[in-house]
Amino acid sequence: ETTPAPNFIRNQVLDEIEGGQVTKIVTRFPPEPNGFLHIGHAKSICLNFGLAEQMGGECHLRFDDTNPTKEEQAYIDAIKEDVNWLGFEWAGQVRFASDYFDQLYAWAQHLIREGKAYVDDLTPDQIREYRGTLTEPGQPSPYRERSAEENLDLLERMRQGEFGESEKVLRAKIDMASPNINLRDPILYRIRHASHHQTGDKWKIYPSYDFTHGQSDAIEGVTHSICTLEFEDHRPLYEWFLNNLPVPAKPRQIEFARLNLNYTLTSKRKLKMLVDEQIVDGWDDPRMPTISGMRRRGYTPASIRKFCDMIGVTRADGGLVDIAMLTHAIRSDLEDNAQRAMCVLKPLKVVLTNVPEGHEEEYDVLGHPARDDMPARKVPLTREIYIDQDDFMEDAPKKFFRLAPGKEVRLRNSYVIRCDEVIKNAAGEVTELHCSVDFDTLGKNPEGRKVKGVIHWVSVDHGIPLEVRLYDNLFMVEQPDRDKDVDFLDHLNPESLTVCQAIGEPSLADAGPEARYQFERVGYFCADRHVSTPDHLVFNRTVGLKDSWAK
Ligand code: ATP
Ligand code: MG
Ligand code: MG
Questions:
Q1: Is 480 a known ligand-binding residue?
Q2: Would you put residue 263 in left (φ > 0), alpha (ψ -120 to 50) or beta?
Q3: DSSP 8-state class, residue 100
Q4: Are strands 516-519 and 339-341 parallel, antiparallel or unpaired?
Q5: Span 111-159, pLDDT tens digits
Q6: Closest to 65 in 3D by CA, of 172, 224, 206, 202
Q7: How far apart are the first and last CA of the chain?
Q8: Measured in angstroms, how far is the CA atom of residue 379 from the centroid of ligand 2?
Q9: How many angstroms from the chain centroid is the CA of residue 487?
Q10: Interacting residues of 137 by C-beta distance below 8 A, sequence separation 6+
Q11: pLDDT tier at 429, thresholds 50, 70, 90
Q12: Which of 356, 374, 463, 508 fits as disulfide partner to 503, beta carbons 3.0 to 4.6 Å?
């Protein structure tokens, strides 16, 4: 474990601990179960769970489940799995904002009794109109002065399901002229005749995010309620509720800048559209920036945590993080930890004409050049091998150090070979090469000449077929959703997935789900955790070899 990077929140908490204002911190990660978690959520998870871990505190997992029509049990399950996979554990049971619905209802009644909340019959459109704008104060609703008795009665009847969905809402009575629009009598409860994944049909009214969040924090004894900057304007309201209700604690809201990553969307709503329109193969499609998609792609928990450490936590909004930083984090992890293997993506057959039929030799090759704890591999050579089509050129330029007619190249871990003859089909395409081996070059340089190129290869007899999926960015532009007038789907990369029928070295037959490899000279790959089987191995390209991240 490396020491965590300092950031303003961490520093603040350290000061508070030193100054004795807090003894034990409690944070929470509060996803709404309306989709899968994405890389932006990973930033929040690492911050909230990381802070608790580093400060000897605790972090809760709380589902912010106030929107029953958009939420599902399947999302709850996926979110829990993602948090655990990242290596974090929540303190105690999983919590739900809906656990507090009874308490929230009692607090709504309390506000009514205090003359600080009222039932409003305006329609949603009228409410918007009356609310005013940044430059214009709002107007009071004609229902604002209802008596506490009437309000209590109406709220109870709303709860019983007596009214239709947009007929009534409960609002706080704060200040219709406040410069902060969030304080212009915000909505506390809406009528929804929807059944809820946790509370079933018990409720016909559901509390708003604002009325739920801070009070849930208070009930749980959260000390630091960390959220993204969009909620900065809501902080006065967050505090208003805490100051006007008999809550057991006074948590503090602290905002930080959300993560935006180029060539990527970090919005559950938009990612859901990709899933619903079947543009991707589900939430965990390896092209998705979801945690489960990245997992399937071959990202490790350590690499995602490393990335979150690298980007840091600030209040500076609007920055766009280069996805090259994310790929750098996984590439350096895999460079150190992935097994090596040879795999030919676009096979071209080579006959080694001076290797007798039936001859076989086998090399013991390191699993990783710097890791003697990794098992060695047996790599067999036979008369017929495959090389990659890209490693041969018929009319090669001078600087082409791979194979060309009359030229020599070294087979990785084996001999130097020379290309003597190029075999073509009727259409003039190269179908096979005839080469000869210089048997005096195993583990040593050839006499009197330099052979620069080294290429990977696989024995035809022993190679195993693999389906290899090459992934590229889903979007062709850095900010697919920047322009509000253009559909982000117009920026989809039509070549975000290319499938190859590849041939891999025999050691790959052992690849279990999620086994990670460097295919030498090709890139980093991971056996698909869902569809790869011993009879039909499927590998996802996690990332290429070349690092383009400039520090
Ligand atoms: P989305 O817009 O993708 O649905 P959200 O904020 O509505 O995101 P929540 O489920 O409410 O999703 O998010 C849970 C937590 O994750 C919140 O505290 C939120 O601030 C944080 N979070 C969401 N997106 C990001 C992001 N891009 N960067 C950092 N934190 C994020
Ligand atoms: Mg949301
Ligand atoms: Mg949210």
A1: no
A2: left
A3: G
A4: parallel
A5: 999 999 999 999 999 999 999 999 999 999 999 999 999 999 999 999 9
A6: 206
A7: 22
A8: 51
A9: 22
A10: 176, 177
A11: very high
A12: 463
Place of tokens 């091998």: 385
102-209 is classed CATH 3.90.800.10: yes
Contact residues for 67 (Cβ-Cβ < 8 A; gap 6+)? 32, 34, 206
Give the torsion through C-alpha atoms of 377, 379, 380, 381, to 10 deg. Answer: -170
- Ligand 1 binding pocket mutation candidate from 38, 41, 90, 313 (most atoms within 8 A of CB): 41
- Confirm if 199 and 205 have CB atoms less than 8 A apart: no
Assembly ipTM = 0.96
Length of the chain: 551
Give the Cα separation of 372 and 536 in Å (integer). 30
- Residue 155 in marked binding region: no
Measuring CA to CA, which residue among 212, 153, 222 is closest to residue 186? 212
Position 318 scores a pLDDT of 75
Give the per-residue pLDDT at 485.
Answer: 86
274, pLDDT greater than 70 = yes
Beta bridge partners, 117, equal: 172
Phi then psi for 332, rounded to 5 degrees?
A: -70, -30
What DSSP letter does each residue of 334-355 carry, written as one string? HHHHPEEE-EESSEEEEEETTS
Could you list the active site residues? 32, 258, 268
Give the residue extent of every domain in the chain. Answer: 8-100+212-265+300-310, 102-209
User: Is 188 marked as a binding-site residue?
Assistant: no
Q: Which fold has domain 8-100+212-265+300-310?
A: Rossmann fold (3.40.50)
Backbone angles phi, psi at 165, to 5 degrees: -60, -40
The beta strand positions in 107-215, using DSSP E, are 117-120, 169-172, 187-191, 205-207
Q: How far is CA 403 from CA 139, 393, 398, 437, in A?
A: 79, 7, 12, 13
Q: Is 34 exposed, middle or buried (0-12, 13-18, 19+ CB in 10 A)?
A: middle
pTM metric for this prediction: 0.96
